[in-house]
Amino acid sequence: MLQTESLLQFLVSTTFNLAFMSMAGGAVFFLAMKNSVIPRYRSTMVVSSVILFIAAMNYYYMKDWYAASVQGGLASFPTSFRYIDWVLTTPLMLVKFPLLLGLGQKGQSFMNKLIVLDLIMIIFGFFGEILIDQPTLHYAFFAVGVLSWVGILYLLLSATSNLPERFSPTVRSCVKVMVGFVLIGWSIYPLGYILPSFGFPQDVRELVYNVGDIINKVGLAIVVYIAAASLTKEETEFGSE
Q: Which domain holds residue 131?
């Protein structure tokens, strides 16, 4: 039992460090690559860099918090830092959709709805986490968070299912992958939320959250960069013909 606990703590510590390094490196990389795409897509690169910078800063503190907790033999987790990260970065992740699609003023209402639902999801999730010892409130807040996530998915699927003909196959493919991150990638978080309720150690929840953040934050930034780079190539080649 002790060996299993030590292995789990090692995995959690490793993923905290891996998340910090990948996000810090990604923030620098995507900012450096900003000028490699045409001006209309540079804002998406800047947003990716900002997201990863915020996440890296939070993970810098979270990894030290967790390491100190393990050394002190305490069951203390950096929940507040994690939700500060999410309340700042997840709205920015959703903003990438109207930015990449170039919706302009038409996308303002769409973006506002996404952000409101996202903030509800994160805020209710936070209160649910800190009320884990009160099952009724814990699951009630969980239900509100999940319903908000479903609302986000509905808006994204409705807006991206029938894109106008002006969008190239590259944009269509990348947008589908981006929606897939919100559909499949974000499902990791409800899983992590409820695992302690089924008797799993809270360290498992932290491991799930860390892996989810690496996949979703870094992975989505890579997809957006590929889309922006491909579109830049297409438009440059088209303009030179």
A: 2-240
